[in-house]
Amino acid sequence: MKSKVEPLVNLNINPCKMCMPMGSATAFYGLKNTMTILHGSQGCATYIRRHMATHYNEPVDIASSSLTEEGTVYGGSGNLKKGLKNLIELYHPDIIGVMTTCLAETIGEDVPGILNEFQEENPQYKDITLIPCSSPGYGGSQYDGYFSALHAIVSSIEMEGTKNNLVNVLTAPISPADTRYIKAMLKLFGIEAILLPDLSENLDGEHDKEYNRLPHHGTHISQLKKMGGAKLTLELCSFERKNSVAEYLQNTYGVPYVRLSLPVGLRDTDAFLKALSDISKLPIPEELNKERGRYLDSMIDSHKYNASGRAAVFGEPDQVYSTVRLMCECGILPVVCATGAACPELLKKVAPEIEKLRNLYLTEAYKIADKADFKDIEAMMIECKANVMVGNSDGRRIAEDLKLPLVRRGFPIHDHVGGQRLKMLGYEGSMEYMDEISNYLIDTIETSFRETLYNSYYKDTLIDTKEMEVKPMIDSREEEMKRKTLEHPCYNCKGHKFARIHLPVAPACNVQCKYCVRKFDCPNESRPGVTSVILTPEEGLSRYLAVKEKMPNLTVVGIAGPGEALENWESVKSLFEQIRAHDPKVTFCLSTNGLKLPLYAEELARLSVSHVTVTLNAVDPHISGQMYQYIRFMGKEYTGDAAGAIMVANQLAGIRLLIANGILVKVNIVTVKGINDSHVPEVVKVVKSLGCFITNIMQMIPVEGSAFEQVEPISNKRLTEIRKECEEIMPQMYHCQHCRADAVGTLTDDKSIELKGFLQEEAKDSQPVKTHYRFAVASKSGVIVDTHFGHAKEFYLYDYLNGEVRFAGKKKVEQYCIGEEHCEEKEDKMESIMNAIKGCNGVIAMRIGMEPSKKLAELGIKPVNTYDMIEDAVKKAAAAM
Amino acid sequence: METENYNKNILDARKSSIVITKGCDGKKGGICCDSNSVSGSVSQRACVYCGARVVLNPITDAYHIVHGPIGCSSYTWDIRGSLTSGEDIYRNSFSTDLQETDIIFGGIKKLEAAVDELMEKEENVKLIFIYATCIVGVIGDDVDALCNMKSSQYNIPVIPVKSPGFSGNKSTGYRMACDAIMKVLLPYRGKKKRKAINILGDFNLAGEMWIIKNYFKEMGIDVISGFTGDTSYEQMIEAPRASLNIVQCAGSSTYLANRMEEEFDIPFLKVSFFGIEDTTASLIRVAEALKDEEARKKAVLFCSKKEAELTEFLSLYHKNLAGKKAAIYVGGGFKAISLIRQFKAMGIETVVVGTQTGKKEDYEIMEGLVEPDTIILDDANPAELETFMREKGADILVGGVKERPLAYKLGIAFCDHNHERKFPLAGFEGIYNFTMEINKSINNPVWEFVS
């Protein structure tokens, strides 16, 4: 079941962003021989590693200062310094990025200060560059963390003063494959550049013969130092940021800069290549012009497919912006543009692009949002009727729900392989990207057009065929009913070879019939209302299963009290459900006084109860009222005519409902001399008109202690007369045996008394036989012997009996050894262990010390040392006894 | 093995947590475990919050609100394979997404507004968990007080989960989650008992809870509630009626079992459904504990049938797998022990074994099960795993997805035994999957090209 959750203002539901340290760690991965450490709880590093490892499919090692409670209260500088030392010892890095977390920032850690102290205290590490990077989890998204790290790198590194001929190339977050594209282009134009960062290899490495755990590719520190002397900075990022590295280099070192969007799509790739051409003073090579031509050609080839695209684009701001530009060139209309980051400029920048295309297509609304969560994105997609999603893997749940294709780009891609190799830069990268989207759009039409068109236009007279199909179903149901009735001993006098079981799960009653005394244990009597014991539904099930095994002709399970079945509804329901789970065929029947029948008639049908017996002694309220001392209905007690009126109304309404639901109804009429004996034919007429199957007219048998104790029963002769008279109206039952509430067997052969011993035993615990071994087993896992005798907090007791091993319970003990220092003085605790295992023949533990072994031996308990599986250990120990 | 390689790759502070030749038993203090991670060592462990989230998150109709900055919520959003047969609210990740201003002025107002809005806009909110992450306590948000207030205001349980990452390790988080569960259950103390069980420490990864429940159905044993795989609020609060609890993931849920025994008088049994032996023994033992002879008979019959069905399959694969060497690095001791035994059954020797949160006794058992020169390590880092897997010539690593790329870089096969997997490893069905998983990777042609 899909739960409906609405977008909320005060809660982010399903984040479309991650936290700052994620982005910072990624950026540091673009530097050679560089490690990072997160100053905070252990979990942050682990979570970030897990996400990066699944996206890049590379080992990702990020250390943590593993702040503890103490560090949080008294400051974490000790942890951080120790962490740095360990990190250096394990990885020998040239650079360490020291990133903060929300915890470090909140407790006010002065990371630059701690790093200075560290280098003063450890002159041996003076050659290692430590770069403090502020990246509190609450300070922004991973996008912000990425730029924060770039800024920290450039501002922490001491630049060489001399001018050089290099070009700084700064990129917004892109994949390693796209980084390789940038490098290839720079090379093509002969531009010597310093890439910040260069993720091309550290996060998409080859399979080397030798694995080197330190990221040993990327931009080297010696290169980074030259950034201040470069002739130009090229910043490939569409958004002006406060902490722009290009601006910093210009302001600090006078390096001029050019800011361009990422080279995605035609216009921005053109601009990028033109810039490279300008810098290198070389013309754009012919092969790139050809690539451009092919891309343009492909845009034309797929433009009509693209025109059906209504895309939802989401992810980091640069990725969203560049994707929108590409789409608006090739005819895919972005109807939802969203980023989880705070980026109000996104709206300003993408709106004109989309507006233009929308006007061309004369079409629908679109939405742009920053600080969006996936719940917002989903709502916008539904509103704007998006038909394709373009963004990171986290959109997959919406894609699944809305059954839309998801073209994966950005971070994270953890449900597909190759996230690190996805391309969107340059003409070729753009072409791959566009083709992927176009093909999904084509697939969507291809896989749905037959069905869509069929559903829209194909009309036929389906109604006739439906009717034909339904009919056999009714037949088979009637067939089933017939079989069940034939096999039901109470509904068919030829059914006597079939056995039934009455399960006494219904003790409570809501009426007091004047002729009834409900008794619990009177094996000498055989009447309704009498039973030896009340069963729980579970016990009912076991009794059924046990009896079924002994009586294969058992076809009917009935509930006939001792109280009123419907007054014990939960038990009855549970019993039927449990038995049905075991036996799909067995017939369910039930007896009721009918008072609550209107409430449960439909439920009974649902539980596949096929036969119901209703005791209906009168259809006249005044007569009916005389049959009951009182009735209890809806929390009130009624007597006399009121009781009669309620009874009759409910009984008749209930019978109608039963019959409407296809249940076979037998009506029992208890005939009481002078009260309803002459009213019986009237009752039979009414129930006949309702559609009942059979009536069973019975003598009232006076019972000691009941209100009708003194009333004389009608004679057998009179009974036969009444039955004969009524037979003219509808079929009569002549073979009723007045069964007990726990009757078992065929009508003529009640086995309930005979089976009593067997039935009781089944409920009882199995008695241990005297000639057996009992072992106390020290186990923590409960599966294998894995605990020291002295450490055991409890023992598992096992019985060994003729080759069989049986779990016999658990026994708790007070520990006598809770660590070495306590051991000696707790010697007296031995007592409590010995108490726990008293009566055992042996003790099995992973280890039992000398002293305890001796004591055990004195008590005649055999000590066994092992770490086997419990059952095996017990068998072996028993064999050794 | 105090070789140069060893000294180069292993931090001094970590040496006491690594056992090269026998010695877990503690003559000289034994293996160092159950302690804080060594700072800077690149531990594979997560945090308290992670532990709490693992245990609680599978409750399907609860609203799990993470109070803190976005990361904690983002990194744990629906990445585990816990399945549902009912509602799927738990698959959403709700966060108060705290910002700089909230850090300065406190986040409690935001949290309160969030709960109010949830109650106003969502239909049928039955249960809310509020996870307090690292900075919540530091900025002075009183989550407990807010939860109390909202519980009584809306008359539903709004339960705080104390899980600041720094307040211990993952096991602390398990305890916090168990405490939160007990807060939900306590009002239902004193319900009438019936013959039925609860299954603790199973999170319905890849439908494992369903598989186990099917077995019990086969035996005629009624299961009231799981903790917490595929469990709803309504099922949970029925749990105090059970006559027996069984505990599958002992590391996370023994504490809960103990508390349920104290409060509701439900005894518990530890069980394992990994491997034929464990599954068979566990099912039979549950029937015995319930003194249900009928169920016992059915279990014996059922398990021997299943075992017979497996024979041919296992002997087929045995040929392909016997003689290989395995490295194990998993979360808890219980799982590691069970893996060593399962590998043994396949004819595979375990040469490196470690866990994130194993206890001393777990390590002693492991030592008993493996060859004397097997490396045993607690809270290992990538450098150690790399060193020892190479040293010992492991053919396959069983671990979580963080460790996967390392294995691959070293040219070693890999099997995911973590919460993210999409194939069941429990029960008889799990034996097929586990064996095939191992074979798929270990006997893949790609390794021919790596020398």
UniProtKB/TrEMBL annotation, chain A:
Keywords assigned: 4Fe-4S, Iron, Iron-sulfur, Metal-binding, Nitrogen fixation, S-adenosyl-L-methionine
One GO BP: molybdopterin cofactor biosynthetic process
Record-linked InterPro entries: Aldolase_TIM, ChlB/BchB/BchZ, Di-Nase_FeMo-co_biosynth, DiNase_FeMo-co_biosyn_sf, Elp3/MiaA/NifB-like_rSAM, MoaA_NifB_PqqE_Fe-S-bd_CS, Nase/OxRdtase_comp1, Nase_comp1_CS
Pfam families, per the entry: Nitro_FeMo-Co, Oxidored_nitro, Radical_SAM
One GO molecular-function entry: 4 iron, 4 sulfur cluster binding
Protein name according to UniProt: FeMo cofactor biosynthesis protein NifB
Origin species: Lacrimispora algidixylanolytica
Protein family: Belongs to the NifD/NifK/NifE/NifN family.
Known function: Involved in the biosynthesis of the iron-molybdenum cofactor (FeMo-co or M-cluster) found in the dinitrogenase enzyme of the nitrogenase complex in nitrogen-fixing microorganisms. NifB catalyzes the crucial step of radical SAM-dependent carbide insertion that occurs concomitant with the insertion of a 9th sulfur and the rearrangement/coupling of two [4Fe-4S] clusters into a [8Fe-9S-C] cluster, the precursor to the M-cluster.
Cofactor(s) named in the record: [4Fe-4S] cluster
Cross-referenced SUPFAM superfamilies: Helical backbone' metal receptor (SSF53807), Nitrogenase accessory factor-like (SSF53146), Radical SAM enzymes (SSF102114)
PANTHER family: LIGHT-INDEPENDENT PROTOCHLOROPHYLLIDE REDUCTASE SUBUNIT B
Domain Radical SAM core: 491-740
Automatic annotation (TrEMBL), chain B:
Metabolic or biological pathway: Cofactor biosynthesis; Fe-Mo cofactor biosynthesis
PROSITE patterns xref list: NITROGENASE_1_1 (PS00699), NITROGENASE_1_2 (PS00090)
One Pfam family recorded for the sequence: Oxidored_nitro
One GO process term, biological-process aspect: protein-containing complex assembly
UniProt GO MF annotations: nitrogenase activity
NCBIfam families: nifE
General function of this protein: This protein may play a role in the biosynthesis of the prosthetic group of nitrogenase (FeMo cofactor).
Annotated protein name in UniProt: Nitrogenase iron-molybdenum cofactor biosynthesis protein NifE
